[in-house]
Amino acid sequence: MKELFVLFFVCSFYTLIAQNNEWYKIKDLEAAYRIEFPSEPKKGKSDVSTEKGLVTMHTYTYQSDSGDENFIYMSSFSEYPNSFFPEGLNTLEKRNQVLENAVNGAATNTKGTLISKSDMIFNGYNGTDAKISVDVSGYQYIIRMKIILVGFKIYMTQVIYEKDNGDNLNLNRFFNSFELLNVKM
Questions:
Q1: Strands 70-79 and 125-136
Q2: How many CB atoms neighbour CB 61 within 10 A?
Q3: How many helices and strands (H and E) does the chain possess?
Q4: CB 153: neighbour CB atoms within 10 A?
Q5: How far apart are CA 60 and CA 26, in angstroms?
Q6: pLDDT 10s digits, 121-146
Q7: Global pTM?
Q8: What is the pLDDT along the chain (185 residues), one digit of tens a residue?
Q9: Residue partners of 154: CB distance under 8 A and separation at least 6
Q10: Which domain of life is it from (predicted)?
Q11: Cα 89 from chain centre
């Protein structure tokens, strides 16, 4: 009985320590969002080809060490030119099409398979929560992504993990740390 109590205490203490680890906070005023990473991410920028033309994607990426259940944490921000949507995105159908294209583009670019997708609302903005399965040398990985459309701006957070490690503490902490900051449309 004493051993069981000690084991329970150690596990509880470890969970408490894991939850209280200081994460690295990003506050990107230009992109108007805040998010936390397990450690300092690398800032990047790349042009992404879309069916309407090139879009610049601004990213923060952290590749974790072997002590984490997740391999990669990433946040990104892109702003589409007004010319991509001359008639605007004033209907739910148009906004959902943009979100669907973003998810399908991610699945295509990773040679993955979309396994789930659900609509969501984040701070009053349309979004989607998707999972893409990717097979790499016989190993199954999941890309879990949340995408939010704010006007012509796309915000994306994603975590890549082995199939068996879904819905873990760090994944939830990462997604839950995302905040929009005074977004201007």
A1: unpaired
A2: 15
A3: 3, 10
A4: 19
A5: 9
A6: 999 999 999 999 999 888 899 999 99
A7: 0.83
A8: 455 444 444 444 444 444 557 899 999 999 999 999 999 999 999 988 777 888 899 999 999 987 889 999 999 999 999 889 988 899 999 999 999 999 998 999 899 999 999 999 999 999 999 999 999 888 899 999 999 999 999 999 999 999 888 889 999 999 999 999 986 55
A9: 76, 77, 78, 79, 80, 98, 102, 147, 148
A10: Bacteria
A11: 23
The answer to whether the beta carbons of residues 76 and 57 sit under 8 Å apart is yes
Amino acid identity, residue 34?
A: R
- What the block records as the tokens of 145 is 């992504």
* Six token digits for residue 150: 């704010």
Q: What Cα–Cα distance (Å) separates residue 64 from each residue in 17, 34, 40, 74, 161? A: 18, 20, 10, 11, 10
The residue with tokens 């944490």 is: 73
